[in-house]
Amino acid sequence: xxxxxxxxxxxxxxxxxxxxxxxxxxxxxxxxxxxxxxxxxxxxxxxxxxxxxxxxxxxxxxxxxxxxxxxxxxxxxxxxxxxxxxxxxxxxxxxxxxxxxxxxxxxxxxxxxxxxxxxxxxxxxxxxxxxxxxxxxxxxxxxxxxxxxxxxxxxxxxxxxxxxxxxxxxxxxxxxxxxxxxxxxxxxxxxxxxxxxxxx
Length: 200
What we know:
The protein is an alpha+beta fold and 200 residues long. It is built from two helices and eleven strands, in the order H-E-E-E-E-E-E-E-E-E-E-E-H. The strands form four sheets. Strands 6-5-10-11 form a four-stranded antiparallel β-sheet. It has a three-stranded antiparallel β-sheet with strand order 4-3-9.
């Protein structure tokens, strides 16, 4: 027998073997009576703990509470009078204030007057106007202006105050705002210990 004939026979046998193997793998297998091929296992309930309480069930969800911020409307009027009002407490992050010039400082104080947090605040009367002739920004000073101020929430805050050159020029009480917020969000860890707030 010639070599190329032997090689052809080997190739044909190999192909037939692969075809037979594929048919065996994909052909439906008969199952003998009483024989278990696969057993379906139901997932066990998942237990999760929320503030000391247990919730059982695979669909139980643990609430997640993100950072919070105070938002105030700060105004500077003619002659430099300052107002701080319309306080809000919402979920969100505070912007980076590291590069702001310290024209004013907004502080959060506790009930005893201790400073819990502080951030510099830009004078809202200052605006940047593009000068086409000079091809650069120029600062324009309005007679009066108002702008929102965002300050990171700190537990225990009772008062927000604005300082200019170390002197308090405006303040607003926030303890009632915190209590009202925590009544609606009692499961928030930052609300633990707030008077009148009890987790559900």
